[in-house]
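Ticket #4471: structure output looks truncated?

Reporter: J.K.
Steps to reproduce: submitted the chain below (352 residues) through the standard prediction queue, then opened the result file.
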Amino acid sequence: MRFVDEATITVQSGKGGNGCASLRREANRPKGGPDGGDGGKGGDVILRASNRLVTLYDFRLKRRYAARNGQPGMGRDKYGKAADDLYIDLPVGTLIYEVTEDEEGNRSEKLVADLVRDGVEMIICQGGDGGRGNIHFKSSVNRTPRYAEEGFPGQEKVLRLELKVLADVGLLGLPNAGKSTFITQVSAARPKIAAYPFTTLVPNLGVVEADNFERMVIADIPGLIEGASEGAGLGHTFLKHVERTRFLVHILAADDLNREDPLDGYNMLNEELERFNPEMAAKAQIKVINKIDTLSPEELDDIKAKCEGEQVYFISALNGDGVEPLLDVMWKQLREMNAAEQEAEADGQESD
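Returned output as attached by the reporter:
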């Protein structure tokens, strides 16, 4: 399936059903009076986050979504049926912007929701209330009212949807650093792999499961290059996905290293993160040097010596060398972050 991370749609809730203006007609009851029921409520439009979806592609194909109208009221005190709500499932991690336009045609947008957890729901358009039937308008001076209310209109909104991949771990690195090979090694994801830059053109997600059913979601972020924060290469298109990851695994390929200063390669992409969003540069990072299978033992020892004093993990994603120790460190980082978040949440509940 093609990965699409932006779409614009129009949503409309249902109109309320009209109330009924009816007078009772029964034998031997010449003054039966009003018996018109109320109209039913129109359907709401509800946005719902779902882990089953990974792309906004379907919303490029269908751009308008409308809930049904409520049914009108009827005689004999029968109320119209309320319409079913319309649920629109969106991938977890979708940002919802409401787009408005002023009288001069200038468009603006406002963030109204961020669907960050599976099952989260938001009513984006309220359905119109049903109109009242004439049974509500009977009075001492008007015993046979012959009018009823019309149903109230629904709401219509233009929404811009933007998907930012949600993952525990973001794999960061230059094109062809071996990120796709790593995610293939540790998960069931099967991204495209080839020996040229920008093989990965969309973020790929891999899920790693522990024996106790814990899950770690890893995002293979497409390769970034110098100038990405200004839009060079894949630029802003994929830098935004790094924002939603909890920590980063920064991978350098052994054949791209500055042999005099192997750690220098980490600085360039960190500077791009800093320019794009300082909070991203502040994320916890695990430093990795991949493709050690291309080095001689002497070359590998020399690089390790020059990295002394810095925690760096050396792996060959291709043949699996060093992958398990790296995965253990990733699990440790994730569990520590989960524990800290749970403790902060518990403290917040106590203070409330």
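Triage note (M.O.): checked the attachment and the full token line is present. The two ends are 45 Å apart (CA to CA).
Status: closed, working as intended.
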